[in-house]
Amino acid sequence: MESTRMSAAAIGQSPYSVVRPCRLHEVPRWDLEADVLVLGFGAAGACAAIEAARAGAGVCLFEATSGSGGTSALSGGEIYFGGNGGTPIQNAAGFTDTTEDLAQYLIMAGGPNVDEARARRYAENSLAHFHWLLEQGVRYKYSFIPERIVEPMTDDCLIWSGSEEAWPFSQQAKPCPRGHTPEFMGMGAGRYLMDVLAERVEQAGVEVHYNTRVIALIADDSNQVHGLVYKHEGRIGYARGRRGVILCAGGFVMNRELLSQNAPQLLRCSQPIGTVDDGSGIQLGQSVGGVAINMAEGFVTVPWYPPETLIKGIFINERGQRFINEDCYHGRVSAHILRQQCDRIFLLLDQASYAEPLFGEHFRIGIGAAGETWTEVEHELELPSGALTATVELYNRHAEAGQDPQFHKAAKWLRPLVDPPFVALDLCVNYAAYTCFTLGGLHTRPSGEVLNAQGLPVSGLYAAGRTACGLPRWGEGYSSGLSLADATYFGREAGRAAAG
Amino acid sequence: MESTRMSAAAIGQSPYSVVRPCRLHEVPRWDLEADVLVLGFGAAGACAAIEAARAGAGVCLFEATSGSGGTSALSGGEIYFGGNGGTPIQNAAGFTDTTEDLAQYLIMAGGPNVDEARARRYAENSLAHFHWLLEQGVRYKYSFIPERIVEPMTDDCLIWSGSEEAWPFSQQAKPCPRGHTPEFMGMGAGRYLMDVLAERVEQAGVEVHYNTRVIALIADDSNQVHGLVYKHEGRIGYARGRRGVILCAGGFVMNRELLSQNAPQLLRCSQPIGTVDDGSGIQLGQSVGGVAINMAEGFVTVPWYPPETLIKGIFINERGQRFINEDCYHGRVSAHILRQQCDRIFLLLDQASYAEPLFGEHFRIGIGAAGETWTEVEHELELPSGALTATVELYNRHAEAGQDPQFHKAAKWLRPLVDPPFVALDLCVNYAAYTCFTLGGLHTRPSGEVLNAQGLPVSGLYAAGRTACGLPRWGEGYSSGLSLADATYFGREAGRAAAG
User: Fold this and answer.
1) Among the CATH numbers 1.10.3720.10, 2.60.40.1930, 3.90.700.10, 1.10.10.10, which is that of B303-426?
2) Which of A15, A319, A397 has its CB closest to that of B406?
């Protein structure tokens, strides 16, 4: 009966691919040899390469595109630092921050599948990691922006970049601003951050191969990883990693099939944030027994503030119901928006609280309705009669008393919405530009060791950044700077572990 | 540097396991040979074995426990049938059912990651499948219970077992009752169904190995599957499957680690429904490149009706807000309960709508509060002042007019809740007995062929039942009888495909 089954070759499968490793005995030659091989030149790959090289390893880095940066370079460059009394910048702004408060915040932010050990490890080492980045040459200005923003438009540093002051986080961890943005004029400091790190990669003697795709891992029959197969200018090469391979190839937000199979709700977001991010890093790990976890989770946001006066408004769904304390981080609000199982979402404001959203045009947030009474707004939005008005009436009654017993918005944002004209901003999911990236990935130890289904390391394999399931693993708990904190810090850990 | 890495053996890993296949060259001998090897003696495995044997294959079935049944035997034995004009039982009860309506319902029920081809395939073959089960000897009575129940306490057959009559399903697919329960007195007809199928398995000449655990697949270097390694009374055996191996080993609801990594919200349910269901079937498939999809989804329920008068009540969360049309299937309501991100959930009833929940004691549904006014109930529940009363007031106002513009509960269930005393049933998630099972699994074609990350079949490998991601893949769309429909029908398809 054997003949009824076609061989892999006969049905057009390559002998190996990102989902099927090249076996050691299939390797015809070694075109390259190094101690440590790193995939991907984003923040995780750069930090892994730097640390591995400084630990004495010879390092080759493979990058699919023609330059450094990866998806990290698309970001605002913010990193979430704190604990240990606080960074010098937090201290200069008058804040102290305990390691326990940072750990507690990270644990809450991790959600139902939190990795507490990883959260504590980062909290303990966050200040030292801040100093490490300073040593690499990343500059931070001693300045603090107290208003709630998304990222500085200036070269300022410290901001409230999460839900620290919002319920329920504020109840269990003393709030402290922890978003640190590099001293770079304007938005998009991720490119600057990556330029600094790329320079250090070069100085550390890392051999970088651009325009080079990794098409398979090389493993023996017990799935111990020995290297990788790459493709450059149409030619296949075999690279040996004597001590290990580190996967830092991003997440899978650009792979619609993987999204539909694992995180279909993210397909509702029209603006995935990614460069390559095709899931191949995760698949390479799976091909040798690595386990992917938490694959349904993603970060999602539509930055509806600043200006912060908008936080005094209330969000409603198409049933006219509130669903979140509006003083949460914009991503947490957006994750709750996606849970509403309807497309129509509005932010209700009165004249006193209204201002034009700073990024309204860019993210396609428009005015859905306006009126002299809330009944008029409700009618114009074609909402169920009496629903919006009942919601506003209840909110106003409690706000008048400085309370929000339903959703616990902090008192400083509570103001009855009584000053006409009234406005409903439209944040319709299928029109506004919701952005997203994935938070599921390879199951790893904090050291970056990739784990198999038995919870044991896949020998010779490491992962960091969004290829791994790291510190940020819950859209509802995300805070700006968490992904870069995870990628840079645990990238470094993976580099040292692989080298050592 | 090789010496710095320990071999798999040195760190205590078996050479192979459910997560690492035994390679063909590692097989010391064949202890058993058959054309088709089936894992698991639940409904999927039984039907796969029957069909493979009838197609002329020699079949061995491996079951970890000492008897037939699997998790299917724990069920009510209901199967979701319809389309093609309707089953004789639907027709006798006065219903006709088109294939298009059934397909449309199944597609809606499949949720954001629906497999439309599979839904259509089942819709087209559902009536023929009903007749096949009759031929196997499963008896169905020509009777219909029009009341909304969970499963018959009698030997009656046809029931409304889903959300067919509820919004939004009723808007896009003509409602028809499709839950068919075997003629078996009392609840728990799953055991009866499995007894009938087990007899057919025996008659078909299938060789059944009880108390036998499958510990690894056997595959060649291109991951073509050739057999499996099993353990019986402490001894390892090697079984060759000349035409294929079919994985029907259930889901992963009994594996808390896999739940926490993939579907952490299911850990909130205190009553997982499973026998083995440790995820090993899925892991075996993954070990040879099979892809697991939709792993975050699960069925969840607390059967809060019958009696159906309870459907006239309204559910609220701890913020005093409604969140669902209460005439949905109990599992859809329960899935929405789990989305509320709070533990406290109440069903509000007045004297006219109240009755004791039939399964209240079993599922720990108690009375949370009672009062002569809704304000009293709100106060006793310590809900935000004015929230419950505003919700009831809005509901009553529209119900009076026979409408539910917020949630679209059908008119027959709408009655203002105005007849004191008023009652709040308590369905607190961390106290009431929420049951669940998983709906993620191996990515397969309708034929049961397990697919790898390239979307190509893993040669020689099939899966059905909850080891596969099948027809039911969305907790919010689940209907009683869908999992058994999927397991029995696609189990048969897998058996034929493997044999043929």
Assistant:
1) 3.90.700.10
2) A319
